[in-house]
Amino acid sequence: MDELVAEGLRIDAGARTLVEDASFHVGAGEIVALVGSSGSGKTVTARALLGMIPFAPGRVAGRVAVTVGGVTTTPRTDADFRPLRGGALGLLWQDARAALDPLRTVGAQVLAAARLAGITPPAAELLARAGFPDPTRVARLYPHELSGGMAQRAAIAVALARDSRFLVADEPTTGLDPSVQREILAQLSALAAAGRGLLFITHDLRLLPGFATRVVVMDRGRTVEEATSIADLTGAGRLLVEATRKVAGGVL
Amino acid sequence: MSARAVGMALLGAVIVAWGLALVAPYDVVADVDPTRASLAPSLAHWLGTDHLGRDVAWRLLLGSRAFVAPALLTAAVAGIVGGAAGALAGWFGGPIAALVRYGFTVGASVPRFVFVLLAGAIFGAAPTVLAVATGLACAPAVGEGVRSRLDELRRAEFVLALRAHGVPEARILLHHLLWVNARGLVLRHLFQAFGFFLVVETTLSYLGGFGVQEPTPSWGNMLAFEFGIPDGNAFAWMAPALAIWAAVLGTALLGQDLGRAEGADGG
Q1: ipTM surpassing 0.85, yes or no?
Q2: d(Cα B184, Cα B260) in Å, to the nearest integer?
Q3: CB-based contact, A158 to chain B, within 8 Å
Q4: How close, in Å, is residue B148 to chain A by CA atoms?
Q5: I need a surface site. Which of A165, B110, B159, B240 has the fewest CB within 10 A?
Q6: What CATH number does domain A3-88+164-251 carry, 3.30.420.10, 3.40.50.300, 1.10.3470.10, 2.40.160.20?
Q7: Which residues 46-105 of A are in CB contact (within 8 Å) with B?
Q8: Number of domains forming the structure of chain B
Q9: Per-residue pLDDT reduced to its tens digit, B219-254
Q10: Which residues in chain B are contacts of A162 at CB distance < 8 A?
Q11: Block means of pLDDT (10 residues each) for chain A, length 252 residues?
Q12: How many angstroms separate the CA atoms of A205 and A187, rounded?
């Protein structure tokens, strides 16, 4: 069974400890929500999972294990992580537009990702799989011509083209309007239903009911709680739920 | 008409002239004929003749040989030397960048024309020497442009995203940063280098001593040879002067157009 595991992940930046102890696992087909207030260490955890912050004394400690097709690797160095990036592990960014090359069309970038995965379908087909109703038109657009929702969809198309087994999605719906948020979530649900594992990082608990299969709560650099639904949270997670309820009214 | 269309037409004409000159059956010495000195333009001599009776149109065509190939060499040297040093500094940053930038600053502090004259005086004024020297003189500008563009891009989110997609580092640098995101900038500098060599060559051959010597035509020595001749054919010096101006204008317009197409100006 494919699995992405973080055990006792600790991330330091100089004298500051950003993450003290993050432990969780994501199975194939699962959508695990990593929640916590801003500054609780979610984004650096995501970057460390892909080895974008190097494992080194005083930077990153702990263990990341990736199991794909029965083979488990515990990458530590950049060279260990490199072959895992893309195929085994993918990243969806909060600012999807900034994650696209400003000088190349969406179609060219999706195709380039597909080529890395060793496949060359038409760009329009890849974009259609990410839910674009008019893929041939979108393929010709440049990132600055995309709306926020379209940019995130394009980023999903790139991840699809790359065929990553696990996707780490860092606030992928933040800043999008509610109807677009729902569409993106539906798209991500479809990815998980197709057997990919998804680590969904967010501060917005309203997105989770009916979407996440499990919730991991992060508080001041530690993963403190885990539950299958936000209704079952008791400790720090409960406080987050209540804080959200206060601003969001009866949504939760 | 757009800057691009005018620029391409002007430079295109230069390149066509060069192509024709390479195969032209014209003998610079045999064409001398004092009986037809300083004739006005006619069907037989489209731009008339100079004071030695030589066909101005033919010599104008042949004059392109004095600079086109060396100017391409200039652009190549500027692009390769400046591009490589700039890429190295922009990609790695830190002490390597500091060292390379120091080199750029020192290089750029020597007036380009003086540098070329010096190289010509030391190594001889062969077109290749002048072209390489001009290329080296233009390299700091190319390098600094590439360096600053890469420095600003290498930490960009999309570069991190490429890395997260498993794109190899060499491909990120060579393809995504240099080719996709810096080629317009480099090309603009190369057009400038091409134009600068034309100015260097025509100036040197105008002044005499260095550069292409009579009877081999260059737009610079044609201008010098015919300007101020009493009762001369005005076309004999106006034509090369206009040709120089048009060719330099062509490189400038194309360079400007590339700068605009790429949006941000990286330096």
Answers
A1: no
A2: 9
A3: yes
A4: 17
A5: B110
A6: 3.40.50.300
A7: 50, 52, 82-87, 89-91, 93, 95, 98-104
A8: 1
A9: 999 999 998 888 889 999 999 999 999 999 999 999
A10: 165-166
A11: 93 91 95 90 91 88 92 92 90 89 92 89 89 92 92 89 91 88 91 94 90 93 90 85 76 60
A12: 18
